[in-house]
Design goal:
Length: 327
């Protein structure tokens, strides 16, 4: 092979690697530019503020899910836990209790369900998909029972509502907090041994156990984290919507899986990671906001969500098979 051919092949490989690592970020920029061009109101201060606030709540809910899937497990109860926390808070506030007590009760929901999931999956080694379907169904049923199948309206949103509406220009304070949380999560994932254990679990769990890593404790912590962040998101949704919505979790199911799996296309190709999830959440928020401004129907928006989820699943499965083939 000539020097020219070698340089051309190396340039092509570098270009391919660049798009594999940063293609999701480029797609986000492209989507924002296209919608801003098609609908100038997309870039208005009010729309940006609303988009960032909703994306922040979703990103918070999906943080624990990201690491669970990265470790080779699954949690499909996260959205139902958020819905139950949402209804518990709304019911307590509507009955005259303070927001502080209601928030503690909502947080307890996340801890309990995260602990149950973690114990059954990590300690008793039961199938994660089956267990989290069961606990998610339980959480969803209890949420519906609290409101007798209907929503619970609130007269005020308390200090949580006040927090949601604190802004730095067009950027909500909540967005700043979530960004800092994700920055901390990135440091833990990339700079501490936790991150190495996390991805090693998915590739070869037996080798991680033989290395003396407390795998069961690690998985238990991940499920508790998923429960806690889901419940916090549910609490924030109570104030954001000024109500308890028993079936609100269903709208986050596809978005959660799409964000985590699509996020696996960024930086760590085929590996779910927090920066990828955050980018995918913002991408989905921009797509849904822009689609609404363009008058797309709900069915059309669902088609886009499904297509993105399919892309994310395909990339993650392909990358994992390729990785295992080299082990």
């Amino acid at each position: 092979m000539s020097t020219t051919d070698s340089a051309s092949a190396r340039w092509t490989a570098d270009l391919k690697s660049f798009f594999l690592r940063y293609g999701l970020f480029l797609l986000l920029v492209l989507v924002i530019l296209v919608f801003a061009w098609l609908r100038p109101s997309f870039g208005s201060a009010g729309n940006i503020n609303d988009m960032l606030r909703s994306a922040s709540i979703a990103a918070l809910m999906f943080l624990g899910l990201t690491w669970i899937i990265a470790a080779g497990e699954i949690d499909v109860s996260f959205m139902s836990v958020a819905a139950l926390a949402n209804m518990v808070v709304a019911a307590l506030v509507a009955s005259g209790h303070g927001w502080a007590l209601a928030c503690l009760a909502g947080l307890a929901v996340g801890v309990i369900f995260g602990l149950v999931n973690g114990l059954l999956v990590a300690i008793f080694r039961l199938p994660a998909l089956v267990i989290t379907i069961a606990t998610g169904g339980l959480a969803g049923s209890v949420a519906a029972a609290i409101g007798l199948g209907t929503s619970i309206s609130l007269p005020s949103t308390g200090f949580v509502g006040a927090l949601l509406h604190v802004n730095f220009g067009v950027v909500p304070l909540l967005t700043v907090i979530v960004a800092l949380l994700y920055a901390g999560a990135w440091f833990v994932q990339e700079r501490l041994t936790f991150g190495h254990y996390l991805y090693a679990l998915e590739q070869n769990r037996a080798a991680v156990v033989e290395a003396g890593v407390p795998v069961n404790r690690l998985l238990l912590m991940l499920y508790i984290l998923s429960g806690v962040v889901s419940s916090i998101a549910g609490i924030l949704l109570t104030a954001d919507l000024s109500s308890g919505q028993p079936y609100i979790g269903s709208s986050y199911f596809i978005d959660g899986l799409t964000s985590v799996l699509l996020g696996g296309m960024a930086l760590k190709f085929g590996k779910p990671n927090v920066i990828g999830t955050l980018t995918a959440v913002v991408l989905l928020a921009a797509l849904l906001s822009g689609a609404a401004l363009l008058g797309w129907t709900d069915a059309q928006r669902q088609i886009v969500r499904g297509a993105l989820l399919l892309c994310g699943v395909a990339v993650v499965v392909w990358a994992r098979r390729k990785t295992r083939a080299h082990i």
